[in-house]
Amino acid sequence: MTLQRRLLILLLLSAPLVWGAGLLFGLNRARFEINELFDTQQIRLARQVLSTLPSVSLNETPAVAAPISPGSLGDSELDDLSIAVWNRRDQLLLVDREGVLLPVRHGAQGFVDLVLDSDVWRVYYVPSASGDWQIAVGQKQEEREELVWNLLASQLVPWVLTLPVLLLVMAGAVRQALKPVRALTAQIDHRPANDLQPLAADDLPTDLQPLLRATNTMLARIADSHERERRFIADAAHELRTPLAALQAQWDAQRLQAAAATPTQGARQDKIAQGLARMGRLVAQLLSLSRLDQPAPAATDQPVDWPALVERLFSELLPLADRARVELECVWPSAGEAPLALQGDSELVAAMLRNLLDNALRHSAPGQTVSLRLLQDRIEVIDDGPGVDDEHLARLGERFFRAPGQDNSGSGLGLSIVTRIAALHGLRASWANRGGEPPRRGLLVRLARVSS
Q1: According to a count of CB atoms within 10 Å of the terminal CB, is the N or C end of the chain lower?
Q2: Which stretches within 293-429 are classed as H helix?
Q3: Residues with Cβ < 8 Å from 201, sequence gap 6 or more?
Q4: Full strand arrangement of the beta sheet holding 134-140
Q5: Ranges assigned E (strand) in 258-349
Q6: Out of 189-193, 242-246, 390-394, which region has the weakest mean confidence (pLDDT)?
Q7: DSSP letter string over 136-149?
């Protein structure tokens, strides 16, 4: 799960919870304030009636307030606010339409919660100082709750309508806040594997700076390790080149002197000569690898001149093809088409194809053909050799790996050099046995653009 998705889920879960907690708090506060407001009104009404009773002539027949037509007071209508006045003998002297439900309570003073006719009432009792009258002002609790919920609904509806907008705004804010992280991820994801330069941190948040510094420190250690490895390979190869050349020259001279030697001695000399040639190729390949493993290989952006490159390459490989008695051919695109357009270092491209063709020539039997096919969208090298077992095809291109069952000398570095040069030029090397109908022997090496 990405950090952005995790933050969004936490926000989407926590925002409604916090909103619900605020709603409950608002509900409690609204109920408290409304109860306080109506309690004050009941007290005030009771005291006003109490102050006017001495100046009012009341007989034994209770005075009942005249009924009011429903809706005549509009939204201010309060049918459930009632009043009742009793004398010393508990006789009703003054009562409204709802007040007849209120019971007389001797000695009661203050608020009392009652259940009258299945409804909860809040009643305020106040007696006169002389004890001649007792006044009760009551109101249904339902009336208060209705007002509380109406008030809450007036606040709830806007919140419910704006909650999706709020969540979208939060999602956009999280995405904007994580933009530097995505930029850093894209910077790491799109940089080449050989680019070990420190990562830029222009807009990275402060809390991610330690992670960036640790990553740059790791890149610096890797670059230093690669540099030491490259120097070691280059130094070792340079140190080996001179004694190998001297040993090869000395051995060639001894072979000329021993031209009349016995066949057994000649076979031994041939094996030693093959070992020296193999060591020479290994040194040359190690030097090539040391140059390719530099942090920034010196590849130019000049277009590859295929005719000139193929002419020079074939002139170098024709002696090897003649000795192996293998035909070397180049297949060009159809009329009106051009070979694969490639920009880079022509010397490196020539070294890549030289390794492929050299490998194909060494594994082809006499009388066979090695083809270099320059097509419009790819490059192919095809031989008629024994091919490679399918289980070993995936490992071709690894350093120092040679498929089992090969009799030719080699170090297992040629195809790794091919893979490296191809990657530097935006190509991917793939290997496959020729197959077909009917099945044909040989290996097919294809170089195509990574995006294709």
Answers
A1: N
A2: 306-324, 346-362, 390-393, 414-424
A3: 184, 209, 212
A4: 63-64, 92-95, 81-86, 134-140, 119-127, 110-116
A5: 302-303, 327-331, 343-344
A6: 242-246
A7: EEEEEHHHHHHHHH
